[in-house]
Recover the amino acids of this structure.
């Protein structure tokens, strides 16, 4: 039992340090997790942009095909081709191409914004963990000082003029000042 009493300050200090270290590691893990999520969000944004570019190419092909078909049908019928009709078909195709590109760019921007927000959240969580660890270590240091610093032991009631541990006998063989 005396060994545990002697080891208590060291066990308390060790527990405080381990708890603080655990909080630091939680902060690192939170930031690493946030970074992983942010990378995935950026990839989703790039994928949305690439998909929109493919869609824009398909819209361009459709517009060119429609204009070519209109020209071929009007030529086969012997009627003249109205330039306005071809221009309208090409304008509609351009509109669809630009709309697809805009949608992809918007999706990419939203994904990149989410990635930035996720990264900032990870950094904030890591900073919070650092503050929590510092608080734990300082609180443990304060508790350690209160318990083992200049103050008399917590079981001391103040009736003796000297500090003594439990079982420390005075000259008469009795203990004084301990409850």
């Amino acid at each position: 039992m005396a060994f545990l009493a002697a080891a208590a300050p060291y066990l308390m200090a060790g527990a405080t340090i381990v708890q603080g270290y655990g909080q630091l590691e939680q902060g690192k893990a939170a930031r690493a997790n946030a970074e992983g999520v942010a990378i995935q969000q950026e990839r989703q944004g790039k994928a949305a942009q690439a998909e929109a570019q493919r869609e824009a190419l398909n819209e361009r092909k459709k517009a060119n095909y429609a204009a070519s078909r209109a020209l071929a049908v009007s030529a086969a019928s012997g009627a003249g081709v109205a330039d306005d009709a071809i221009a309208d078909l090409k304008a509609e195709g351009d509109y669809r191409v630009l709309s697809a590109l805009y949608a992809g760019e918007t999706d990419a921007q939203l994904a990149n914004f989410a990635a930035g927000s996720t990264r900032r959240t990870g950094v904030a969580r890591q900073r919070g963990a650092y503050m929590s660890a510092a608080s734990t270590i300082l609180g443990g240091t304060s508790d350690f000082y209160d318990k083992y610093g200049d103050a008399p032991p917590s079981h001391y009631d103040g009736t003796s003029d000297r500090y003594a541990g439990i079982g420390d006998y005075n000259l008469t063989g009795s203990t004084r000042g301990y409850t």
In short: The chain is about 80% helix and 0% strand. The chain has a mean pLDDT of 81.
